[in-house]
Design brief:
The chain is an alpha+beta fold. It contains twelve helices and 16 strands. Strands 1, 6, 7, 8, 9 and 10 form a six-stranded antiparallel beta sheet that branches. The radius of gyration is 23 Å and the shape is globular. The chain starts with 6 loop residues before the first helix and ends in a 5-residue tail after the last helix.
Length: 368
C-alpha cells in the first residue's frame, strides 16, 4: 500500500537490513547452503545437525550415532544476513530459536550465539526479541506468562514503514480520498520530531540493555522512550575502556562521543534508513566532511596532497571495526568462540587504528 505513492522509497527499502531483519523462511531469504558437504554442524564424532531441504520446507535435523533423532523446521529467518542469521521454529503458538545459525563472514553454519556447544532447542523467542526484529507481532498469551504465545497470522515481518512512521491506515484512507493533498496527514513526519524523539525511535532497538515497563509494541515513533523502558545509562569510563559492547548499544556509544555532544546530530545525520548503504564507506566519510570540512581546525595541519586520502578514511580511524563481546559463535571443530565484528559508534581517537591506516596509506603511496 505504501508503495502505491512512495514507490522509489519502497524499491530501495526492501534491500535494507531493516526490512530483511525478519522474513518467512523461504529459499530467497536463507543465506546458508543446503548442499551436501556444506550443510552440517558437528558437535562431536557422534552428534551433528544437518541442514536439509525437503519437499515440505527447510529443516535442521539432529543425528546421533548416524540416526535421525529430531527434525526442527525453519519457520522464520531472524537477521538480514549482512553478518549472520538465526532461525526460529513454531511449536504450536510458541516460538523457539533453532540451535544452528549461519555466520556470513565465514560462510559456514555455526552454533547459535550464547548457546552451549551442544544441541539446545528450547530457547524461547520473546516479544522483546520480536519488537526489534519485526514491525508487529500479536501476543495472545497473558502478560505474566513466561513463554509468550503469538498469533501466526498477525505478523508484519521486518522493520517496515509503520515502525518509524506509525500506524498508517487513517493516512492511507485520507490521502486516497484526497489525491491532490500534498501534505501527509495522519502520519508521523520524522522531520517534525524533536532531536530526542528521533533518537528514542532508534534507541528502542539500538539502545542497549533497556528493560520494558510496558508491553512490547506499545511504543510508537514520537513517544518518550522513558515512559516505556528503563533505559541503559553508560558511564564515560566504561565507554573509554571498551567495556560497552559495540553491537548492543550504538546509541549509548554515539551519545558518549564528542561529535554528538558538540552538535545536534541524530542517527539519521549519517544513516539513510530508506537505502542499503552497508559497506559504502565513501558515503559515510563524506557525511563526516559535511561538518569537518576543509576549513575545520582539525584539517589545518594536513597538506592538500594528503587531504583527499585522509577524507576517505574518517570512519576507519575514528569508528573502527571492533569485536562484539555478546555476538560470539562456535565454528565447526573449534573450542574457541569467534566474535562478530561491528563498527564502533563511539567516535573518538583510536591511536592504534589510526597508525595502521596511515601506514597503509604510506605503503600505497597515497600520502607521504
Amino acid at each position: 500500500v505504501c508503495a502505491n505513492c512512495h514507490k522509489n522509497i519502497y524499491d530501495t527499502h526492501i534491500n535494507t537490513a531493516h526490512y530483511l531483519t525478519s522474513r518467512p523462511a523461504l529459499a530467497k531469504y536463507i543465506k546458508g547452503s543446503f548442499e551436501e558437504g556444506k550443510n552440517v554442524y558437528t558437535y562431536n564424532p557422534n552428534l551433528f545437525i544437518a541442514m536439509k531441504k525437503r519437499d515440505s520446507g527447510f529443516y535442521q535435523v539432529v543425528y546421533f550415532k548416524g540416526e535421525e533423532k529430531k527434525v526442527l523446521p525453519f519457520d522464520i529467518v531472524i537477521g538480514s544476513g549482512t553478518k549472520g542469521q538465526s532461525f526460529a521454529y513454531w511449536q504450536n503458538n510458541l516460538l523457539f530459536q533453532l540451535p544452528i545459525t549461519y555466520y556470513v563472514f565465514a560462510h559456514q553454519w555455526a552454533n547459535s550465539p550464547g548457546f552451549p556447544n551442544k544441541v539446545q532447542f528450547d530457547r524461547p523467542i520473546t516479544s522483546r526479541c520480536l519488537e526489534c526484529h519485526s514491525t508487529y507481532v500479536k501476543t495472545i498469551s497473558a502478560p505474566d506468562v513466561e513463554k509468550e504465545e503469538f498469533d501466526h497470522n498477525k505478523i508484519i515481518y521486518g522493520v517496515d514503514c509503520e515502525k518509524c512512521h506509525g500506524p498508517a491506515a487513517k493516512h492511507v484512507e485520507y490521502q486516497t480520498q484526497n489525491p491532490n493533498e500534498k501534505t501527509g496527514k495522519y502520519i508521523i513526519n520524522l522531520a517534525r520530531l524533536t532531536r530526542q524523539q528521533n533518537l528514542d525511535m532508534c534507541a528502542l532497538c539500538h539502545g542497549g540493555n533497556i528493560k520494558k515497563i510496558q508491553p512490547s509494541f506499545t511504543f510508537t515513533a514520537g513517544d518518550d522512550l522513558k515512559k516505556y523502558f528503563v533505559t541503559d545509562s553508560l558511564s564515560t569510563a566504561a565507554v573509554n575502556f571498551g567495556t560497552v559492547d559495540v553491537h548492543g548499544n550504538q546509541y549509548g556509544l554515539l551519545q558518549s562521543s564528542k561529535c554528538f555532544r558538540m552538535s545536534k546530530m541524530t542517527c539519521s545525520s549519517c544513516h539513510n534508513t530508506h537505502e542499503n548503504e552497508r559497506g559504502k564507506t565513501e558515503v559515510f566519510n563524506q557525511r563526516c566532511i559535511t561538518c569537518h570540512n576543509n576549513v575545520h581546525e582539525n584539517f589545518t595541519t594536513i597538506s592538500k596532497s594528503s587531504l583527499s586520502s585522509i577524507k576517505e578514511n574518517c570512519i576507519n580511524c575514528h569508528m573502527p571495526v571492533k569485536q562484539s563481546q555478546s555476538i560470539v559463535v562456535f565454528m565447526p571443530g573449534s573450542e574457541v568462540p569467534t566474535a562478530a565484528l561491528f563498527r564502533s559508534h563511539f567516535i573518538s581517537i583510536y591511536a592504534d587504528e589510526t597508525k595502521n591506516v596511515i601506514q597503509a596509506l604510506k605503503t600505497s603511496k597515497q600520502i607521504h
